Amino acid sequence: MKLSKMLLKTLRETPAEAEITSHQLMLRAGIMRKLAAGVYSFLPLGLRSLHKVEQIIREEMDAAGAQELLMSALLPAEYYQESGRWEVFGPEMFRLRDRNSRDFCLGPTHEEIFTQTVKGEVSSYRQLPLTLYQIQTKYRDERRPRFGVMRSREFIMKDAYSFDRDEAGLDVSYQNMYKAYCRVFDRLGLDYIVVDADSGAMGGSGSQEFMVKSETGEAVVAFCPHCGYAANDEKAECVPEAMAQEEPKAMEKIYTPNAGTIEELVEFLGTDSKHFAKTLIYMAGEKPVAVMVRGDREVNETKLANLLGINEQDLAMAEANVVTEVTGARVGFAGPVGLNIPVYCDKEVALMSNYIVGANESDYHFINVNAKDFTPEVVADLRTIEPGDACPKCGKPVDTTRGVEVGHIFKLGKKYTEALDCTYLDENGKAQTSIMGCYGIGVNRTLAAVIEQYSDENGIIWPVSAAPYQVIVVPVNMANEEQAALAEKIYNDLRDQGIEVLMDDRDERPGVKFKDADLIGIPVRITVGKKASENMVEYKLRKSQEVHEISADQAIADACAWIADELAFERKD
Ligand code: ATP
Ligand code: MG
Hints:
This protein is of the alpha+beta class. The protein contains 15 helices and 31 strands. Strands 3, 7, 8, 9, 10, 11, 12, 21 and 24 form a nine-stranded mixed beta sheet that branches. A five-stranded mixed beta sheet has the order 16-14-15-17-20.
């Protein structure tokens, strides 16, 4: 491709709307443009990289024995009504009606539709196991679309679904996908960890997420450097910190004027936040509930929603007027004693003694509160893990890191096959419900994650596997015939060898060309300058500062060899 002909506009300035590196660079390098909040168009350069990611996924899915098909994004409501998710998805689902007033949605994920397809096409145990996948556009009306295609409202997902006869079969299919996912992310050169994830509202017996390490990631992962335990913080089990057990004293009400936050109380009482238990009022759907965690801890809303058996989106902190109605006090003075709504108490609180809570009266707290002073509905693990907490597996301190969830694998069990009555006939001619797994990769999010991990202050540094072009040939001065001719020759020779080449044949200053080449991140740059008459060029890798002056033939040979080496990938088990 000649740059003079290409639809490509790079931006020198960082667009104000873009907060994270990948989003900034995807706009600056002319990869994509925003159309509406969370809706993007991919331009020619970006689409090439997006296709590379798709192709790697496709190759690994195919190698794993999964079969590709393609479904519509426009889906009739009935299957989602049958599974119950027409309601569960709530406002995240894009809904529409056809001219005959029939309900449709733009598919947020396709479990129901694959189940329905398998129900129609599979009748015998002989046709199982079966793993099907598609690479297709999904729609989710995210509450907070942000970070470009990291969290967009329209995105491409590779979604795969396995159907097995039994749990043992599912284990095999799941492991198979696990390995295929590792290969996909390895080929893209990503630094990732696989973590245990919450199975939450999806049901099922287990799930793992593939997290690309990144400071800007929206997910928090707890990991143990000692034993290798790793889990999403929504899921990571908390071990209560052992605290000295004191002899219970008599509960006492104290005046704490205007000390409605933990910080104010710590200041007022001159004590440590570990000696408080905070009580938070939540709305579980229409129902107010109270949740207690130690003063320095955070409530884990995923764990709370799971305990309450509701969707996380149906859980919200109560408004101030509800808090006052429920507790009889201003916000900041809630406590478990005498409260007439259910109290859900974190395990750690149950181990505390003589602690401080709100008195359900403005400006008052109780001190010396103990287990005997109130009756919780349930005592459970309800807090979020923190760095330094004991690892639930080995007991040593865990650490936390941020990550971008690029993939998710899930043992679903019978949730959808039961709801949609997807059965097969076994050896005895008896109908059995098939067991399902589902496996997703966010394609554009993965592309953004690659950029998050591969860039410097000058722009993107594409790994060859995801690069839109592998080599850029830069003639310094197009008006110089020797330079233009040698550049053209290198361009053609490389193309003949199957290399994807871009040539910057624009009539621009060399500085502009080099800046653009760096910004769009092409892995190999071959610069044709003054020494063109001697058949000499400059050879530079985007990821290195070194510039080598070598012959044009050597540059071509080096580029071919290096690219082949970078792309080499052994699919071993
Ligand atoms: P998240 O917790 O980030 O919202 P999710 O759990 O809703 O993700 P899944 O339903 O498991 O995501 O979807 C499978 C994959 O699709 C995710 O691992 C992610 O890579 C991608 N994905 C999900 N939502 C989005 C989005 N709004 N924009 C881009 N990619 C997304
Ligand atoms: Mg989501």
